[in-house]
Amino acid sequence: MNALPQVRMSVDQFLAWAEGQPGRYELANGMVHAMAPETAGHAERKAAVYSALSAGIRARGLNCHALPDGMTVRIDEITAYEPDALVYCGGKISPSSIQVPNPLVVVEVLSPSTGRVDAFSKLAGYFRVSSIEHYLIVDPNQPLIIHHARGERDALTTRIISEGTISLDPPGLVLELADIYPPA
User: Fold this and answer.
1) pLDDT tens, residue by residue, 105-131
2) In whole angstroms, what separates CA 138 from the centre of its chain?
3) Do 71 and 100 contact (CB within 8 A), yes or no?
4) What's the CA gap between 138 and 122, in Å, rounded?
5) Sign of the C-alpha dihedral computed for residues 87, 92, 98 and 99 taken in this order
6) What is the pLDDT at residue 183?
7) Ramachandran region of residue 121, left (φ > 0), alpha (ψ -120 to 50) or beta?
8) Where are the beta strands (DSSP E) in the chain?
9) Cα–Cα–Cα angle for 54, 58, 60, nearest 5°?
10) CB-CB contact of 162 with 144 (8 Å)
11) How many CB atoms are located within 10 Å of the residue 63 CB?
């Protein structure tokens, strides 16, 4: 296992460092943090969210693109997160890109080790990115999604969804909870 750098770095320095590293990492306030291994339930929920986003984009014929984890979202010059899934709209980014410059939707699937960070630090961080309109926090174990949406004057509205659909407008995407939490 590689030792994490113990010096503060910028997002550009972090991206250059992380490109050659095994594993997944995020940068928070200039410090590198390794991401813990995932459970099968977490991975299944993450895959279901990505599939639902992709299917929703296709169904509506939107000029948008869904990506699974692995892409970086720059919050500021010393913080960069790697959401579990995201959506951006417009032209496709370069295949060699490792960051998405203008995400519209970001998704985090909760895990025991990161739940507090996802609910607080990442919530505040993601909405510092002007392009982000929606942040979904997904419970991996039960049908429960917390949907934070940017409103007027950057006020956030929050919905707790345990059945039915989630409307993400913009870009005009509708997700069925049943697609994310299929019957057992």
Assistant:
1) 999 999 877 777 888 899 999 999 999
2) 10
3) yes
4) 13
5) negative
6) 85
7) alpha
8) 25-28, 31-34, 64-68, 73-76, 79-81, 85-89, 103-109, 134-138, 145-150, 156-161, 165-168, 173-176
9) 120
10) yes
11) 10
